[in-house]
């Protein structure tokens, strides 16, 4: 089986000729490199179960779980994302996963369990391109600033991490490119060296710049899809508008090597 990949615009790569549950070390290294440069990998026609999904995740490192999420029965390191039984659609804004901890996950992956008849896309922004297309004076002004990321919307234990400071302009350890490292405005509590008003305006402006239409990939889910992304290079959100039918995803995350 020949491994092939096709770059997508403006972010991501579609990878074929590979089985996610039986990766060799060389294949894992190839996927890591694709993630570092393309941000997202789409792996179609996998049709795997949760045990195989965990094997895939653990090829990349130690799995981590966001406390407060709903675990997959029998698989406590995976969580369920579902619209089943809801009277109102879930809400999602562009964000990075679990950025309120000192060492956020490097990778997140979803496997399609139930794909709706209509809608339910996942959107990804190219945060390398978002940084590189800023005016030079803006890049220089932001270069050494940090953002305080905070937890929102989860019921955590008293001793759980709920706040962490990260560079706003983050150099990727593999590609060495710089990405804007942002999350939803509610999770960006402060920007170093800026007043609260300046920080709020800066975060809102950068998010608008990052998520403009020409910087976002919309992934239409198909049965059997597995999608992984690099949290250091992209933001993401689900589009729950106009969904017809059940949308069920199982999610896993991989810790960054420190």
Automatic annotation (TrEMBL):
It comes from the Bacteria. Keywords: Dioxygenase, Iron, Metal-binding, Oxidoreductase. Residues 7-252 form the TauD/TfdA-like domain. The keyword Thylakoid does not apply. One of its GO terms (molecular function) is dioxygenase activity. It holds the Pfam family TauD. PANTHER family: ALPHA-KETOGLUTARATE-DEPENDENT SULFONATE DIOXYGENASE (PTHR30468:SF1). This is Taurine dioxygenase. It comes from Williamsia maris.
């Amino acid at each position: 089986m020949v491994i092939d990949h096709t770059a997508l615009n403006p972010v991501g790569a579609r990878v074929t000729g590979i089985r996610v549950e039986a990766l060799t070390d060389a294949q894992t290294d190839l996927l890591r490199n694709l993630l570092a440069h393309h941000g997202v990998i789409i792996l179609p026609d996998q049709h795997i179960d949760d045990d195989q999904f965990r094997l895939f995740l653990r090829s990349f490192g130690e799995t981590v779980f966001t406390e407060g999420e709903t675990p997959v029965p029998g698989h406590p390191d995976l969580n369920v994302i579902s619209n089943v039984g809801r009277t109102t659609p879930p809400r999602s804004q562009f964000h990075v996963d679990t950025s309120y901890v000192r060492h956020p996950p490097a990778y997140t992956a979803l496997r399609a369990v139930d794909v709706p008849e209509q809608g339910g896309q996942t959107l990804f922004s190219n945060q390398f391109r978002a940084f590189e297309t800023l005016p030079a004076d803006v890049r220089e002004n932001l270069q050494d600033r940090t953002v305080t990321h905070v937890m929102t919307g989860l019921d955590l234990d008293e001793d759980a991490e709920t706040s962490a400071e990260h560079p706003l302009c983050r150099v990727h350890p593999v590609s060495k490119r710089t990405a804007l490292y942002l999350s939803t405005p509610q999770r960006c509590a402060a920007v170093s060296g800026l007043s609260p008003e300046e920080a709020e305006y800066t975060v809102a402006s950068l998010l608008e710049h990052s998520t403009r239409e020409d910087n976002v990939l919309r992934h239409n889910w198909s049965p059997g899809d597995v999608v992984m992304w690099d949290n250091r290079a992209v933001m993401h959100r689900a589009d729950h508008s106009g969904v017809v039918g059940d949308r069920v995803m199982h999610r896993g995350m991989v810790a960054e090597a420190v």
